[in-house]
Specification:
Blueprint: H1 9-20, H2 29-36, H3 40-52, H4 66-75, H5 86-89, H6 107-115, H7 117-120, H8 132-138, H9 141-152
Helix pairs in contact: 1-2, 1-3, 4-9, 6-9
Length: 155
């Protein structure tokens, strides 16, 4: 499950709308049922509430992967044509607008999200998440785990 504290309001509102419209993971009935009754005003209020929370990093990822993850986050993987994560998510991984905050995200969640990106996200070309599909597919398992480890320690 992702950490929502500190997430950008625009990103959260977009995700709530995607759940309501079944554009995002419609098979997760519990998630969809929880947001269906929320008015657009309540969705905006929830997004604003979560953005105002300042999550402390949880870490709990393999520390030996952090340096490699930082390098990928800041520089990308040029030989595989993978851009730096910081180009979109920002140097501090706090996101902006529709681009989500990654700082302090839980290690298992981030690693799983990247590995399963094609199946779970970015299927809709108009979704801003579609841009991540090529990046997620280009990272191998150890690179994915390294990036996830690095992000889990950021605040």
């Amino acid at each position: 499950m992702p950490r929502l504290a500190g997430q950008t309001t625009e990103y959260l509102e977009n995700q709530l709308k995607a759940f309501v419209s079944h554009a995002r993971e419609p098979r997760i009935a519990v998630a969809v049922s929880k947001v269906h009754g929320l008015s657009p005003e309540m969705q905006a209020a929830l997004a604003a509430h979560f953005q105002d929370l300042n999550p402390q990093p949880y870490g709990n990822a393999p520390r030996n992967l952090v340096d490699a993850g930082k390098k990928i986050y800041e520089e990308g993987v040029p030989e595989d044509n993978v851009p730096a994560c910081s180009a979109c998510h920002g140097p501090d991984a706090k996101g902006h607008g529709p681009i989500p905050r990654l700082a302090g995200q839980l290690y298992p969640y981030t690693a799983k999200a990247l590995v399963n990106w094609s199946a779970e996200r970015g299927r809709n070309p108009s979704d801003t998440a579609a841009v991540m599909q090529r990046v997620a597919q280009s990272l191998n398992r150890s690179q994915t785990e390294a990036v996830a480890a690095y992000l889990s320690y950021l605040d």
